[in-house]
Recover the amino acids of this structure.
């Protein structure tokens, strides 16, 4: 189980990459000014840094990087200037939370705080502040854009008109999608297994409290949270909302860093916790996680029970919907008739690659309305084995988008198109009203916005 097992969110790789844009500067780059926007210079070093990071992340640059990148930086400065005019403020608690989350992710990927300093060639406090400024700027830019486009609303007739005016080759292909329902059972775990887990955790606590071993070493050796175990169980600074409620309730009541908490049970297993440091409404802890093992006999028992439930559904004794509410142990779906929701887009449609692998394998065998036989799958959140049956509600073949099947997709495209136009119109006017100077050697470009060169002085 990864560190996210005790968080309620994950951090995308794209967000992580964005935090490092300014971190690759070379001391030997001359601070040569390439552009001036208002009273803000854009240095050659900034352009080089951004370009090197884009190369490292394999981000496609749509054109000459020495034209595209400075224009992007100039646009950011226009948005940030507007943020100053609008006095857009950023909640520092949110910034701090994101900084710590991203640093935790970097530690998870790179290995240690020392390796972060080596990789980004600067002390961690300096990198942390640089990261915080990047997050502040990104948030303020998004707020300005939201304010500019906030009044855009589309009606069904707007969507229909937009779709009818699309060129044939601009209508997207929609891959095969499915809609599914699921019932899951957590195999019953013998009491003896749970007591054994608790005994081991009590032994670890006693060893730490007596000063015989340190928590860090025990976590590295025994914790089953793979993401934090290699860091001695350290979670990094997190707020209550990013921790499991049971974990947070105990962790925030700890006061002595030398002592170990009582045993805490969450949906992921059993933990013991050690306080590292509190900072306001955030806390940094170490923990050791142990999960009770599911035996083959327990899995077989759960499979037999679900097989019996499936037989009753097929015999019309109960409906699939009824069984989900009273039998399913999947927290995310049991109060929603078992309907699986795609977390990537918030809809009930999945491409096959977006489903858990075991579910996709079973769904591939079914016709709409059919129910799979019981199967074992890994719960992606708890990283443990559960038993499930799945019903294929609908299968939508790959097709060109159309209004009847893909209204939400087309509506999103319509809204996005209107927002892009409004932002472009706003930027064109802002460029016209802003002092801009592009130095020789940086102006031989075809820019996305026409006004830059007309105002060159």
């Amino acid at each position: 189980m990864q560190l996210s097992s005790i968080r309620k969110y994950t951090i995308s790789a794209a967000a992580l990459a964005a935090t490092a844009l300014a971190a690759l500067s070379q001391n030997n780059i001359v601070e040569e000014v390439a552009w001036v926007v208002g009273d803000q210079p854009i240095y050659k070093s900034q352009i080089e840094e951004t370009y090197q990071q884009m190369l490292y992340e394999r981000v496609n640059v749509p054109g000459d990087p020495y034209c595209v990148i400075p224009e992007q930086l100039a646009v950011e400065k226009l948005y940030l200037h507007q943020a100053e005019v609008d006095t857009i403020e950023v909640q520092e608690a949110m910034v701090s939370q994101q900084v710590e989350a991203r640093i935790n992710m970097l530690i998870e990927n790179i290995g240690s705080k020392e390796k972060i300093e080596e990789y980004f060639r600067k002390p961690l406090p300096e990198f942390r502040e640089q990261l915080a400024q990047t997050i502040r700027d990104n948030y303020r830019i998004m707020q300005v854009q939201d304010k500019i486009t906030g009044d855009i609303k589309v009606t069904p007739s707007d969507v229909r008109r937009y779709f009818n005016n699309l060129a044939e080759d601009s209508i997207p292909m929609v891959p095969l999608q499915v809609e599914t329902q699921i019932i899951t059972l957590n195999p019953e775990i013998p009491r003896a297994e749970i007591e054994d887990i608790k005994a081991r955790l009590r032994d670890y606590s006693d060893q730490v409290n007596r000063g015989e071993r340190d928590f860090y070493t025990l976590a590295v050796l025994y914790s089953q949270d793979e993401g934090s175990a290699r860091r001695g169980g350290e979670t990094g600074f997190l707020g209550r909302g990013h921790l499991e409620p049971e974990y947070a309730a105990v962790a925030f009541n700890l006061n002595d860093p030398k002592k170990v908490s009582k045993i805490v049970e969450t949906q992921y297993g059993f933990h013991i916790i050690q306080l590292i440091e509190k900072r306001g409404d955030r806390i940094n802890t170490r923990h050791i996680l142990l999960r009770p093992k599911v035996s083959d006999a327990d899995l077989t028992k759960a499979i037999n029970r679900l097989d019996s439930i499936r037989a009753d559904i097929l015999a019309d004794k109960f409906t699939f919907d009824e069984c989900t509410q009273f039998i399913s142990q999947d927290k995310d779906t049991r109060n929603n008739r078992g309907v699986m929701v795609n977390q990537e887009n918030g809809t009930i449609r999945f491409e096959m690659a977006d489903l858990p692998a075991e579910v996709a394998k079973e769904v591939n065998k079914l016709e709409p309305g059919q129910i799979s036989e019981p199967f074992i799958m890994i719960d992606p959140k708890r990283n443990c084995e559960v038993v499930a049956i799945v019903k294929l509600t609908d299968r939508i073949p790959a097709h060109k988008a159309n209004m009847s099947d893909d209204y939400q997709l087309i509506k999103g495209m319509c809204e996005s198109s209107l927002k892009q136009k409004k932002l472009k119109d706003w930027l064109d006017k802002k460029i016209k009203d802003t002092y801009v100077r592009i130095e020789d050697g940086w102006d031989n470009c075809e820019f996305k916005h026409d006004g830059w060169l007309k105002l060159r002085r």
User: Anything to note?
Assistant: Residues 124-149 form the longest helix (26 residues). The CA atoms of residues 224 and 289 lie 5 Å apart. The longest strand covers residues 384-396.
